[in-house]
Amino acid sequence: MVEVADLLSVRALGLRGVHLCRPEAAVRWVATSELADPTPYLEGGEVLLTTGLDTGRRPDEWDGYLARLAAAGVAAVGFGVGLTHADVPAALAEACRRHQVNLFVVPRRTTFVAISRHVAHLLEEQESVAARAALTTQRALISAAAKPGPVDAVVTALAAALDGSACLLNPDGRVLTGPVGAGRAEFPLDEVLTDVRRLRSHGLRSAAAQSKPAQSVSVHPIGLRGRPSAYLAAVTPAQTSEAQRQAITTAVALLGLIDEQDRSRASTRRHLHDRALELLAESDSRTAQLVLEIDQPATELPKRIRFLRAMGDEPTVENAAAALERRGVLAGVLAGELCVVTEPARAAATAAQLADDGLLVGIGNSVLPTDGATGYRTAGLALAQATAVSGAVAWDRVVDDGPLGLIDPDKVAAFAEYWLGGLDSEQLETLRCFLRHHGSRLKVAEELGLHRNTVRNRLAAIEALLPGKLDDPQARVSAWIALQSVPETLRP
What are the residue boundaries of the Purine catabolism PurC-like domain, all occurrences included (predicted)? Predict the structure, then answer.
């Protein structure tokens, strides 16, 4: 930025300050005018050069003249002496003080054209310096993007370019990188979190900016498509310059490209992992190993594995799969279910975490990778027994519960009502005893203290109320399953 003080420091021009209330005022250009009101031709930021040819015939005219120039935002008034006026009129100097406008004297030997040429040179030099600085900053940011850990490197390089601080947050407001930079101690995290929450509903189309005298903050979504993957917060001391804005824009673009590359790699990895899981579920461990090595050559399947299968709403399943992959766990989504393969020792802890996330989880049997089909199938059977109360169910527990562990309790109860609904407690106890002694009427009579004929009559009455004959093995199995849902306390 070229300032009024820069122009006055050019010795060759011989300019002399009369009233310099704002020497740091930015100079955008030079204008020459002898009009009593040149403001219609000004844009603000100009150094206005005049000899007062058509102004100041009366002392009170200077006040209105300067009031209009101050309102137009001129940077300074350069008053040429030696033609219309031998020296700066006192009324002009007083008006400049009153309206806080810079005033300097242009000596007779200095042409207005020379001043314009010097200002143009200063502006050109400034633009050249700014361009070189911007190029250096862009090179630093691009170089950072090529380093290992490119996201952290770009955020750090941006903070250095801003001479302030920078931070990267995920859409939920969790800090991913930073704050870093010289101004990290003054990083306004609470304000940035508020902006992130407000911007989330706008996708990639919106950014936020706040400016204060001592600090400027901007928040930008990161990503090239879909929803933002993160938000970049950039903080500069005082007002953000054009060069700093360019640096922020470059950093946002680079982080977007890095994010797109990460998404592409993650998508490829996800497809490979899904295919490997499918192959393991079919017991094709050899091909599954080859598929995994495409992603990571050093990958090796454990000697024994357990399948985990989990159900829940789609976002929860997708988020859980992504979280497991970030931890290096083989996970994917097969047929709408979360499918995980892990070492047996890690299965219970992984399942417990998934259950805490609100998923229903089934843990399969511990198997060799070459027998993955059994592990996948038993995980599905265990998942069928999982409820909101139980959360995670292991195949081992299903086995301990026997065949009834594979049947839904509500279905067993309905089945028992169908089979045994017509029997009283005495008949139920007789039937239990009969099945317990594998159909031996003699042993039933001995246990219940009844005559053999009484037992025969009771069993005939029971059989008349059942859907099947007790001599049929299938009927005996059905009766035994039905009896498991009848409380043992229902005895005569």
Answer: 25-122
How many distinct structural domains can be found in the chain?
A: 4
Both 309 and 222 in one domain: the answer is no
Closest CA to 76 of 100, 52, 112: 100
CATH assignment of the domain containing 170: 3.30.450.30
pLDDT, tens digit (0-9, with 9 covering 90-100), for 41-87: 999 999 999 998 876 566 778 999 999 999 999 999 999 998 888 99
Q: Are residues 325 and 237 in the same domain?
A: no
Q: What is the pLDDT of residues 215-250, one digit of tens each?
A: 899 999 998 888 888 999 999 988 888 888 889 999
Report the C-alpha gap between 100 and 67 in whole angstroms.
9
Q: Which domain holds residue 355?
A: 302-393
Q: What is the pLDDT of residues 270-320, one digit of tens each?
A: 888 989 999 999 999 999 998 888 877 767 889 999 999 999 998 889 889
pTM beyond 0.90: no
Q: Is residue 114 part of a domain?
A: yes
> Per the structure block, which two tokens stand in for 335?
């047929």
